[in-house]
Design the sequence.
DNA sequence: AACAGGTCACGAAGGTCA
DNA sequence: TGACCTTCGTGACCTGTT
């Protein structure tokens, strides 16, 4: 049973990927395409509709938040395995690029479009990695703060996600703006972090 | 398989380009030209007819809308991969300079601050205010900083809202790019936070 | 064992340019 | 026009959680 119905793997994957975007699709015919193993790929709208009609439930799909938690947990585990925590625990700040390397590998699971090259945001991460290497602990409220910021970011994200209405002409410009802003936000977060008492 | 039939590249391309214009072509003979690798170019009408007869389906050709979508996506990706031209920002020792609000408007060629009108993004500000009220800690300049971010994002949103017109049907694409960036940053921050000693 | 999500090679669209 | 390239959705297979 996948999402409440016995399905093949492909339909499972299809549903997982598309169930939340029904509105985005349009049938080029009459919304009643017959869907079978050979015609399945022809009309996403109708295929998805059939999924729903057969009882598949989008509620069974994990929320972004839940998926995030999974991912994080996984990453944390990965880090723990890589770094023997108990092991003498000397730490100090050997400028070894451990943190950097680690960042790269664990991010690969998340970022597929950046084939190896560093981008704007990575620079930010480097800075933070540096701070971590210094091993200064964050006070509890400080780490709380960081989490809060994440929450805010998420809020924002959802906000934008649900706002797809209008139409845009100058996409290029807009995208560039987006890009710049993300970069800028990243730096702001970093600066904010730097200002926390633990780092002073 | 191309358009439902095993074909060579040339027929694939030919069909893609012409399948939707069958009516526009006329055979100068009797609509029964023989079509082979050497005569193919002589009569488009008959070549195309042969394509259809052999089972090629024009339904497999992406609609204009879909093609437009692709194009947009491509553009968005291109922008995302752009590196910041300026700002070598070493990060170095960082620290207190943070306090100065000169986060700088290096990007402000694109986005200007705009206090005043209220809209959805203000909710973001509200959230922050709440966080501030709650647990105490944000210094004034810190909340200022956060407000700043909200404002900037507001600007962006307005940019989109005010532009309507066609050509580009899909703001969603752009939004997705934005989300993507935020999401990625969020993950990084969270992961890094988790690796701080305070969390262990 | 069940059932979520993640991964990644691959097929088949469109795009490019000599 | 067509050989060659890029892109993205698909689905078989894997991982992780309950």
Sequence:
């Amino acid at each position: 049973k996948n999402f409440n119905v016995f399905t093949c793997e492909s339909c499972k994957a299809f549903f997982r990927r598309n169930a939340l975007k029904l509105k985005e699709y349009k049938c080029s015919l009459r919304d009643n395409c017959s869907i079978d193993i050979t015609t399945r790929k022809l009309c996403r709208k109708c295929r998805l509709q059939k999924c729903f009609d057969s009882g598949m439930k989008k509620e069974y799909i994990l929320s972004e938040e839940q998926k995030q938690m999974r991912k994080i947990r996984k990453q944390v585990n990965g880090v723990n395995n890589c770094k023997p925590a108990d092991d003498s625990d000397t730490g100090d700040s050997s400028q070894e690029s451990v943190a950097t390397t680690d960042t790269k590998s664990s991010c690969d699971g998340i970022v597929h479009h950046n084939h190896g090259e560093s981008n704007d945001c990575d620079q930010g991460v480097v800075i933070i990695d540096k701070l971590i290497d210094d091993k200064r602990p964050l006070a509890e409220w400080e780490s709380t703060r960081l989490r809060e910021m994440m929450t805010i970011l998420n809020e924002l994200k959802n906000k934008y996600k649900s706002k797809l209405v209008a139409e845009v002409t100058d996409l290029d410009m807009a995208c560039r703006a987006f890009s710049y802003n993300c970069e800028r936000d990243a730096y702001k977060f970093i600066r904010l972090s730097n200002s926390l008492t633990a780092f002073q």
Observations:
- Chain A touches chain B through 91 residues (CB under 8 Å).
- Chain A has three domains: 9-60, 63-84+93-117, 136-200.
- The two ends of chain A are 54 Å apart (CA to CA).
- Residues 78-139, 152-188, 190-200 of chain A have pLDDT under 50 and may be disordered.
